[in-house]
Fold this sequence. Notes:
It is a single chain. The protein contains eleven helices and seven strands. By secondary structure, the protein is an alpha/beta fold. The mean pLDDT is 93. The chain has one domain (2-245): Rossmann fold. The longest helix has 18 residues, at 140-157. A seven-stranded parallel β-sheet has the order 3-2-4-1-5-6-7, sandwiched between helices.
Amino acid sequence: MIIVFTGTAGSGKTTITTRFGKYLAEKGYEVGYVNLDTGVKKLLYKPDIDVRKTITVEKIMKEGYGPNGAIVESYDRLMPHIDEYIAGILELKQKKDYVIIDTPGQMETFLFHEFGVKLMENLPEPLVVYLFSPEILRKLHDYCFVRFFALMIDLRLGATTIPAMNKIDTIDDLERHKKYIEDLEYLTTRLKLDPSTHGLLAYKLCTFLPEVSPPIRILYLSAKTREGFEDLETVAYEHYCTCGDLT
Length: 247
């Protein structure tokens, strides 16, 4: 099984990769790790495949590039090696029960660069987990954004994508968040009362969402407490098994 963690910087991709991998290993599974972040300096896990062996952002910056330019340039330089990485991941998949892929800290370099898209197109049935933090959910239309963004990642990468709220140990109103994220009818009703332009846009989008969104189960995770790890394992199993779906 291939699980790909993606999300914005600070969403907890590397930490969840480490902790969930350890959780699986403790259950007796063989776990392989892939690091696709050219800018990370220290990892909490030992990667079996690491793009930093080819190039790093730090090395490119010594050539005079700024941070953002160096990140983009690093994936330009990875492109000639894309087939090697695809072959390496496929070989790792044959040896391990799970392969966990940790994507770049700046998620746009994975979603909008040819490297990330081509990699995903050539992996067999990867499950993408879109991590987001509770602090981005400040307004009602933020919940609509999270659901649609997961769908856009699915469309861009051509891989089943499930949204997962990470760091739930940092909040005390999880049930309120769940109500808005999971119950689209409830969210749509509330958004209808918002007279702002953004409220109207979110209302129309959420009205349309049930027609285009595949059945999914929203995940709620905590790397610190391991809450939600069992649900993530179950969803991964259902994704690869004909006996289940992601509802």
